[in-house]
Specification:
Chain lengths: 708, 337
């Protein structure tokens, strides 16, 4: 609910902005821990096989070296403790290229790196399973029950009897998260308790995974992560670097710092997996969908499965009586794939929303009209009513704002000089959930000033959590922003949900708001007075002449939320210019219209959305990690080869939010915007390229060679 | 990175002498490529001789000798200064465009003109020390020949090496028939025509250039020409900036004052070979012809007919063809579409 007297809903600048631009905000490697030693990882140069020998003699004699840790001398760790991706130095088995096989600890970083070069390793090599195109023929049913075949109606019959049919395969490559801040850890033991300064999207999850893996109790581990330089899912689950740093610190009996290099990031912290998606659509001649099948084949790591749910959008986007969503998976010698921004929805929507565009073209129907025709009244996957659904508004508002009426319905009709211009549209969605989160609010009065502190083990990925929580608390307590302090990113604080899956804002803000309401209730009860209008906590602190007061809440999602299907929705509009000689594509304009419930801060929200959009443009045009199937290594191992969009790649970006007040999802009506910003983007760009050139590219990224 | 000694040379004589005695010593100028390669353990110099203090940065008109009327660009001048210098912009806009098409603003501020010519390939098999690479480790094999070779050569490659040379600046210099001026270890001066500066891989891909160990690039001389109004640097890449060329074309035309008959044509290509690739076949075909799209296409066809693509870079043949035509068209129109 927007209220002109409230701070929530207004474009407040980040309260942590000054600290960040002046370098005062301490990220994981910035902690001034005394007596630090430095660790450098060394990695396998094969993708499959067994280590035969590791010769560390020369490295041990190198200046400054304190310890060399390999599977031969590492302490026993619990490999099922919750650290993702293995590589914990527990055996000589090699499961992917670049698996950590050891750690050099030295007085300085340079000494550690130098010594690492002096280590020689021999292997018994096996041929890696690294060629997905060949492996996918052996893909089988996943173990994960959530990924079992989901059938509604009779898709086969509907496809057979279809008046109009579109059937195509869409390919998406391996991608990396590559947050600006690479994964890094400082470990410091005090007695039998270890403090781990480590970027963590799920503070309590990192704590329990580290404890279990190190075979100690959770209370023996403290995670400190007040600032995170991006994560995009790669800092949700934790990877070997977290615990290996703790192991190294115990070994050398002093604090140790370990930071991954950019090149090491490609095989240390998960990845977005390669997906092969077949989408089949059946429709009547007037554009009513009769069947939708979305069949995904992908790969896991050698021992563990992970599947990003590419069929999720297809489950709920359109009203279709016959539906089939399937997954097949094959083991591959790569690091375990993991959650990557808009998991499944970003890649899945590329397939679904490209197919919808293909269907619209076949029907000679406007792609917006096709979508409007198939708008579901309820969630087709479970029959639940929507808590709210904004797809229609997103499409209509977007069409008007973008000038959709200027689009030429037929491809190749809009040429300007050497460029072919095209417009594309695609929809997206992401589920909205609130997760249990506890919070403490503390009030302190000094004279006539009341200062509030809210504390919870929340995480700020750099997206504005500090700011929205300060806004929320300020509103709920009746205080100006400057009198609210937000303390997060520490496992010693009350446990909180992770900053993952777009649950952060709703989980944290609802908990803080609940805590502030509770403290106001408690102050009211304590005063014993009756008021016409509910006073604020700040007023009560003054009237009751209290100096310190605090409360804690364990906030839970609304039970009634289960009765509804709650999602954010968007519509993405892209205008591209394709050089008709060289095939180079530029996205001149991009508009995302998003319905994501209450927008606590339109300024940070816009940044979130256009950030997601830009990654989506990267997904569409530039990002691809390439494996050499002979060795299983990535040949795209730095930012010189792995192309994220540069400034010059990005044209005019616009974000519009649909105002909605959806209190069925949660009390504050917050749906989250972290994920949805990337969903539907690649399809919008690919559809615009089709409109420009008449070429349907079903294999991302759409590099110039694919448009010649 | 491995331990090395670091010294600063006072003058060119001290610099070349410092290298002469040590085959594993290297000059350090901008360091934008060398330091990266040292971090990756690809380059392992035992000594770095910092030459950034030498007075070899000047850009000045050439008043005597074979290149009289041209422009001399100091070997240790920064790429940014060369690209933005008024005389370069006025008389050699092709060079300015090519420099600005490369790297990023930050890198161009550090990188020197001489260093730019000595960039090593960005072939991923060269960079990854666990992979075979004849350029990095002679005799170990070529990882790219039957590997991922989308970015690799279509002209002049050998079984030993299919890498491409990465510089943009050098592609323009090749088209402009620049001359590299060098100080030898014994203090002599020598001049190397640009076409002879870089090498094809043959059996010795570890040798990128014909510069001997210890030789110092003092300047790059640009002869006078009549291309300033009709030149264009076209770079095709996977993103709009900060990406190496899939393929690039430096094109320059001189046309008759009366019609649009081609008097002189220069075409050099990047991203296609182990050195800047002069499209001499196409150039010869264009001289005396009308500057028309059909003639551009005929010349491009003839040039690209000799291409030998690898498994993943077949697109470069068609792309090269189109890019030659587009670059010539843009050059003819004074850089406008």
């Amino acid at each position: 609910m927007q209220d002109k007297n409230k701070l929530t809903g207004t474009p407040v600048s980040r309260i942590d902005g000054i600290a960040k631009v002046t370098g005062k905000a301490a990220y994981s490697t910035d902690y001034p821990v005394k007596n630090l030693a430095y660790a450098v990882l060394f990695k396998s140069t094969i993708a499959a096989g067994t280590i035969r020998s590791i010769d560390t003699a020369a490295a041990e004699k190198a200046p400054g070296v304190l310890a060399i840790i390999t599977h031969q001398n590492a302490p026993k760790l619990n490999v099922d403790g919750g650290i993702r991706g293995g590589a914990l130095l527990q055996s000589p088995e090699i499961e992917f290229h670049g698996q950590h096989i050891g750690l050099v600890v030295a007085e300085t970083f340079e000494q550690a790196r130098h010594a690492a070069h002096l280590i020689s390793v021999t292997y018994d090599r096996r041929d890696p399973k690294a060629d997905f195109e060949k492996l996918m023929k052996n893909a089988s049913v996943p173990k994960d029950k959530d990924k079992a075949d989901a059938k509604r109606g009779d898709v086969k019959a509907a496809l057979r009897e279809a008046e109009i049919k579109v059937e195509a395969v869409y390919e998406t490559p391996i991608e990396h998260h590559h947050p600006l801040e690479p994964h890094a850890t400082i470990a410091e033991w005090t007695g039998d308790r270890v403090t781990l300064y480590n970027s963590s999207q799920i503070v309590n999850g990192a704590q329990t995974a580290a404890a279990k893996t190190l075979n100690i109790k959770p209370e023996q581990v403290r995670i400190v992560t007040p600032y995170i330089g991006g994560g995009f899912g790669s800092k949700g689950g934790q990877w070997a670097n977290l615990v290996l740093t703790a192991v190294a610190a115990r070994q050398v009996n002093r604090p140790v710092k370990l930071a991954l290099t950019r090149q090491q990031m490609v095989n240390s912290v998960g990845l977005r997996q390669r997906n092969h998606q077949k989408v089949s659509l059946a429709a009547t001649k007037d554009g009513k969908l009769t069947a939708l099948a979305h069949e995904t084949t992908t790969h896991g790591a050698i021992k563990n499965e992970f599947i990003e749910p590419c069929g999720d959008c297809s489950k709920i986007m359109y009203d279709v009586p016959n539906s089939l969503i399937t997954y097949r998976i094959v083991p591959m010698n790569v690091i375990l794939p993991t959650y990557t921004r808009g998991p499944g929805k970003s890649t899945g929507s590329f397939a679904l929303e490209s197919a919808m565009d293909e269907l619209a073209h076949t029907l000679k129907m406007d792609p917006i009209e096709l979508r409007l025709k198939n708008e579901p009244e309820r969630d087709p996957s479970n029959g639940k009513p929507w808590s709210s659904r904004t797809t229609v508004q997103c499409l209509q508002v977007g069409a008007k704002a973008f000038g959709w009426d200027r689009r030429k319905p037929e491809p190749r009709q809009n040429q300007q000089g050497n460029y072919l211009i095209g417009y594309g549209v695609a929809c997206g969605t992401y589920p909205a959930h609130q997760r249990p989160t506890s919070a403490i609010v503390k009030l302190k009065r000094t004279g006539n000033d009341v200062m509030a502190t809210v504390e919870l083990a929340a995480a700020d990925l750099g997206t504005g959590t500090y700011t929205i929580l300060a806004q929320t608390a300020a509103d709920a307590l009746g205080l100006p922003l400057s009198q609210v302090k937000v303390v997060i990113g520490d496992s010693d604080l009350p446990p909180a949900a992770g900053a993952v899956g777009s649950v952060g804002a709703s989980s944290y803000a609802n908990a803080v708001n609940d805590a502030c309401q509770k403290i106001t209730d408690e102050l009211l009860a304590r005063s014993g007075k009756q008021f016409f209008a509910r006073p604020t906590a700040s007023q009560l602190m003054l009237s009751e002449k209290l100096t310190d007061f605090q409360t804690r809440i364990d906030a839970k999602p609304l039970e009634s939320a289960e009765e509804y299907s709650a999602h954010s929705f968007n519509a993405n509009f892209a205008e591209v210019a394709v050089n008709r000689f060289t095939g180079m594509v530029r996205v001149n304009r991009f508009l995302a219209v998003t319905g994501a419930g209450a927008i606590l801060n339109p300024k940070t929200a816009r940044s979130q959305i256009i950030g997601g959009n830009i990654w989506g443009i990267g997904m569409a045009l530039t990002e691809e990690s390439v494996v050499d199937p002979r060795w299983g290594n990535f040949v795209t191992r730095s930012f010189a080869d792995y192309h994220v969009p540069a400034n010059l790649d990005i044209g005019e970006m616009e974000a519009i939010f649909i105002r909605e007040d959806d209190q069925k999802a949660n009390r504050m009506g917050i749906k989250g915007i972290g994920e949805v910003g990337i969903v539907g983007v690649a399809a919008a760009v690919a559809n615009a390229i089709f409109n420009a050139t008449g070429k349907r590219v079903r294999e991302l990224p759409i590099t110039p060679d694919k448009l010649l | 990175m491995r331990p090395f000694t670091y010294t600063r040379a006072k003058d060119p004589a001290a610099a070349t002498q410092a290298l002469a005695g040590n085959p594993t010593a290297r000059f350090l100028a901008g360091g934008t490529n060398l330091i990266d390669l040292m971090k990756e353990d690809v380059e392992r110099p035992t000594a770095l001789v910092d030459i950034t203090n030498l007075s070899l940065a000047e850009i000045k008109p050439i008043t005597a000798g074979a290149s009289k009327g041209g422009l001399s660009i100091g070997g240790l001048g920064k790429n940014t200064e060369a690209a933005n210098h008024p005389l370069v912009r006025q008389h050699y806009p092709l060079l300015s465009q090519a420099i600005l098409a490369g790297a990023s603003g930050q890198i161009r501020n550090m990188a020197t003109n001489g260093g730019n010519l000595l960039q090593r390939t960005r072939c991923p098999y060269f960079y990854e020390v666990s992979m075979p690479c004849n350029k990095r480790e002679p005799g170990s094999g070529c990882g790219a020949l039957e590997g991922i070779n989308r970015l690799h050569a279509i002209f002049g490659w050998s079984e030993k090496c299919v890498a491409v040379y990465p510089s943009d600046m050098a592609i323009a210099l090749a088209a402009l028939d620049a001359v590299v001026r060098v100080r030898t270890a014994s203090g002599q001066e020598r001049s190397i025509p640009f076409a002879d500066f870089h090498r094809l891989p043959g059996n010795t891909p570890e040798q990128d250039t014909n510069l001997a160990h210890g030789e110092l690039i003092t300047a790059i001389d640009l002869p006078q020409n009549r291309f300033a109004d009709r030149s264009y640097y076209l770079k095709v890449r996977d993103r709009a900036s900060y990406a190496f060329a899939l393929l690039s074309v430096a094109a320059a035309l001189e046309v008759s004052e009366t019609g649009n008959r081609i008097v002189q044509a220069r075409i050099a290509m990047g991203g296609v070979a182990h050195k800047p690739w002069r499209a001499l076949t196409a150039e010869k075909m264009l001289i005396g012809q009308e500057a028309t799209p059909a003639n551009f296409k005929r010349a491009a066809d003839a040039e690209m007919a000799a291409a030998k693509p690898l498994e993943h870079n077949k697109f470069k043949v068609e792309l090269g063809n189109r890019s030659i035509v587009l670059a010539l068209q843009m050059a003819l129109n004074g850089g406008k579409a």
